[in-house]
């Protein structure tokens, strides 16, 4: 029987359009509700330290309105961590964050600070919140993610999505396959995300043990033209 891969729809870009005018629309909370009606299995938002798109008001409302699962992306910023602990989303996904980046650029270097990450993950475990670490598909990072006590890894698919030519894409896909296999062997759940779209999802959905994908840009870009529900339904159908 085919396994249903969960689709987490990232609505950050809806907030980005709203913040371009510092107004009240479009509302990512409304977009999230439409995404759920169309078959999203989770709603993902990244509460950045600089609050450039998603605001505290958004995550608080989403906590009350999301019917599927709320996946909160965050970095190790004390203020954001406090919000996350108070909100208790179903899942937190840790990402690196740099102010000058346009979007999350690389995976977390888990090997560089295992003690620090363990300390950050502990309280979420006690609260019953699942934790994922967004990492590049490298065996050292996967093993470190297991050591620090994460429940899942989200494999960074950006290098695959941005690969130039078939050879590079094949190599990047093989990196993802190997990392997914190892994560599964280590007892970690396998998620994937970044740069996924309606074309490159075909290869990614066949990664070993893949349980969940998180997709933002491609879905919101299509939603601008065809509506949120149709954009989500069309991605759901490809998975
Ligand atoms: N997963 C993570 C950890 C991310 O940081 C992002 C971007 O916010 C995404 C998935 C979604 O990436 P995209 O917008 O390219 O689909």
Which overall shape is indicated by the principal axes computed on the Cα atoms? globular
Most strands sheet: 8 strands, parallel, barrel
Distance between the termini: 14 Å
Strand coverage percent = 15-25%
CATH topology (fold) name: TIM Barrel
CATH superfamily: Aldolase class I
Integer tally of domains: 1
> What is the string of helix and strand elements?
EHHEHEHEHEHEHHEHEHH
Q: What ligand molecules are bound, each kind once?
A: pyridoxine-5'-phosphate
Radius of gyration (Å): 17 Å
Poorly predicted tracts of residues: none
Taking strands numbered 1, 2, ... along the chain, how are they ordered across the largest sheet? Answer: 1-2-3-4-5-6-7-8
Overall average pLDDT: 95
Please name the defining characteristics of this protein:
TIM Barrel, binds pyridoxine-5'-phosphate, alpha/beta, 8-stranded parallel beta barrel, 11 helices, 239 residues
Report on this structure.
- The chain is globular.
- It is α/β, with parallel strands linked by helices and about 240 residues long.
- The protein has a single domain (about 5-239), classed as TIM Barrel (Alpha-Beta Barrel).
- Helix content is about 45%, strand content about 15%.
- The mean pLDDT is about 95.
- It contains eleven helices and eight strands.
- The protein starts with 5 loop residues before the first strand and ends with a helix.
- It has helices spanning about 10-20, 30-35, 55-65, 80-85, 115-125, 140-145, 160, 165-185, 200-205, 215-225, 230-239; strands at about 5-10, 40-45, 70-75, 90-95, 130-135, 150-155, 190-195, 210-215.
- Bound molecules: pyridoxine-5'-phosphate.
- Pyridoxine-5'-phosphate binds near residues 46, 154, 196, 214 and 217.
């Amino acid at each position: 029987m085919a396994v249903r891969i969960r689709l987490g729809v990232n609505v950050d870009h809806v907030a980005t359009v709203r913040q371009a005018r510092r107004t009240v629309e479009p509302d990512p909370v409304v977009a999230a509700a439409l995404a759920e009606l169309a078959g999203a299995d989770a709603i993902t938002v990244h509460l950045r330290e600089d609050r450039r798109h998603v605001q505290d008001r958004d995550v608080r409302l989403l906590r009350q309105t999301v019917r599927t699962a709320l996946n909160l992306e965050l970095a190790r910023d004390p203020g954001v961590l406090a919000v996350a602990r108070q909100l208790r989303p179903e899942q937190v996904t840790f990402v690196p964050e740099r102010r000058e980046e346009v979007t999350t650029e690389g995976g977390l270097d888990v090997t560089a600070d295992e003690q620090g990450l363990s300390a950050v993950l502990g309280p979420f475990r006690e609260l019953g919140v699942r934790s994922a670490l967004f990492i590049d598909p490298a065996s050292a990072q996967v093993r470190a993610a297991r050591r620090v006590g994460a429940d899942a890894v989200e494999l960074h698919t950006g290098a695959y999505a941005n690969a130039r030519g078939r050879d590079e894409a094949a190599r990047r896909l093989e990196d993802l396959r190997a990392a997914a296999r190892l994560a599964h062997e280590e007892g970690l759940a396998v998620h994937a995300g970044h740069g996924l779209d309606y074309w490159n999802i075909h290869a990614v959905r066949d990664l070993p043990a893949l349980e969940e994908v998180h997709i933002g840009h491609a879905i919101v870009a299509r939603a601008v033209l065809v509506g949120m529900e149709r954009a989500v339904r069309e991605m759901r159908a490809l998975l």
